[in-house]
């Protein structure tokens, strides 16, 4: 086998690239020498594989294995460095987000490093590795920015889908926050009718209110509307609690069916809501 090399260039990701290639050599034990050909931008490094004796078939297999691990290392650099740049660019140019919105979206709705290990992200990275590997099969020079600008279309397509999902989640979150702000403003204008309210939502949909002495005040709070499907009744229930403006709200025997309603109430009333798991009133919920 003649001496085989791969040269990698980058304008922006020098440190991460050198670290990944160094780890490939020292940690994973791949037999190549690492030479920095150009230290300034654009940065250029050459990886020279050691020569070995073997058949042509063995030689091709060895090169394929080397290229796979090389492609994996380059994919790590791209997903850690280039991907964030691309995401911000798309959000700015295609979704017209300003820098403040972009930072909020990334903080709230972009996957964390742990979440990036999900099957969806693994699929996206596998697509990228395959694309780089196919390129290395016929090329010995690889420029990160050039490759990502003009190739890797399948990977960028999957990345755009991920961006669209993040934007949708961000917009839904913004709508939710606007809704909570509106409810807080409404609540701030109300006078307290009952300082403490105990709320019971029975599984079949009946809603009951009790005061601090455990007296049933459902008629005072709800009038004749004391029974309805929870999903359809949610807005009216929240409105009723806001109008009563309690300083303390105790919810008895909360179930998963009421999770969305309680999330809104807890956000609006903040520290004034508590959940009771067992008392005399809890028996009323059965």
Folded structure, characterized:
- The chain has 9 helices and 8 strands.
- With 286 residues, the chain is an alpha/beta fold.
- The longest helix has 38 residues, at 56-93.
- Strand 7 (248-252), helix 9 (259-269) and strand 8 (273-276) form a beta-alpha-beta unit.
- The chain folds into 2 domains: 4-183, no CATH class; 196-285, Nucleotidyltransferase, domain 5.
- Residues 228-232 have low confidence and may be disordered.
- The strands form 2 sheets. Strands 2-3-1-4 form a 4-stranded mixed sheet. Strands 6-5-7-8 form a 4-stranded mixed sheet.
Which key terms come to mind for this protein?
about 290 residues, alpha/beta, Nucleotidyltransferase, domain 5, 2 domains, four-stranded mixed sheet, 9 helices
């Amino acid at each position: 086998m003649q001496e085989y090399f791969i040269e990698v260039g980058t304008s922006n990701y020098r440190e991460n690239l050198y670290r990944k290639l160094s780890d490939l050599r020292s940690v994973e034990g791949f037999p190549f020498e690492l030479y920095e050909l150009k230290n300034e931008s654009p940065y250029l490094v050459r990886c020279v594989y050691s020569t070995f004796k073997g058949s042509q078939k063995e030689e091709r297999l060895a090169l394929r294995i080397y290229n796979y691990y090389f492609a994996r290392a380059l994919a790590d650099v791209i997903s850690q460095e280039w991907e964030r740049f691309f995401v911000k660019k798309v959000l700015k140019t295609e979704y017209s987000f300003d820098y403040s919105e972009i930072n909020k979206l990334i903080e709230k709705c972009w996957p964390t490093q742990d979440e990036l290990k999900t099957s969806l992200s693994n699929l996206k990275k596998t697509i990228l590795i395959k694309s780089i590997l196919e390129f290395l099969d016929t090329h010995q020079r690889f420029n990160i920015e050039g490759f990502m600008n003009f190739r890797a279309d399948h990977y960028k397509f999957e990345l755009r889908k991920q961006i669209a999902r993040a934007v949708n989640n961000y917009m839904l979150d913004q709508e939710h926050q606007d809704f909570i702000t509106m409810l807080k403003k409404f609540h701030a204008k109300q006078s307290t009718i009952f300082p403490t309210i105990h709320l019971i939502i029975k599984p079949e949909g009946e809603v009951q209110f009790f005061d601090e002495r455990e007296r049933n005040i459902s008629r005072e709070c709800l009038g004749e509307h004391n029974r309805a499907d929870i999903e359809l009744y949610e807005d009216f229930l929240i409105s009723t609690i806001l109008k009563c403006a309690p300083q303390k709200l105790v919810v008895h025997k909360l179930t998963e069916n009421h999770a969305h309603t309680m999330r809104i109430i807890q956000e609006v009333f903040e520290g004034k809501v508590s959940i009771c798991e067992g008392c005399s009133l809890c028996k009323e919920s059965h």
